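So, can you check this one?
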Amino acid sequence: MAKEKSKEERKREKKEKKLAEEAGVKKSKKKEKTVLNEKVLNALENESGTAPAPAEPIKIEEDVIRPRPVGALVPFANPLADEKCAKRCFRSVKKAAGARTLRRGVKEVVKSLRKTPLPSSSSSTPASSKSSLPPAVVVLAADISPLDVISHLPVLCEDHAVPYVYVTSRAELGIASGTKRPTSVVMVVREKGKKREKEREKEEGEENEEGEKEDWDEVYKGLVKVVEKEGGKVRI
């Protein structure tokens, strides 16, 4: 019995020694790493004379505002609005979309142009300020391909005495008219439809008090003025 006990004790002692040795090795490895790290830091400090400076954050240059690339314009884009005139046209188109006096797309514009009465050669009654205004204004995008999509519209506009102007971007015209899709042509109508006007009045309610909103007639007059001014610069 004594011999068996002595054997078990020896086995326990061996296991304990092994565990102690392994623990000692692990501790020594950790200590060596920390000592090495300290030596490297001390060597760097001695060389530079100061503690190593923290890394500076990388500065990312802000994107420089570049001019918007303009696509190929149709050769018959005349009159072509400049930047100022285009901005005014887009504002008026946006307000026309809010007032529901806007026609979008080639089909709707052609349909509305054919419905507009032809100008009479002789007028016996004196023209008032409102009647002297054209019935509508057409804004076309000049970066359209193929050309045949809008090539027939200027002739229709001239036949019905409707002023028109070209802008350089169909994407911007689409955004101004209240759609996310690019728009090739837009028609701003002077008079509101009876049904649309009633719906507008119901939606607005009492928002038009004390001149909070600009009168649509004034907006339309401003658009006609700008388009006719550009039309005077037509190059033949």
Q: What stands out?
A: Confidence is low (pLDDT under 50) at residues 60-69, 123-129, 209-213. The chain has seven helices and four strands.
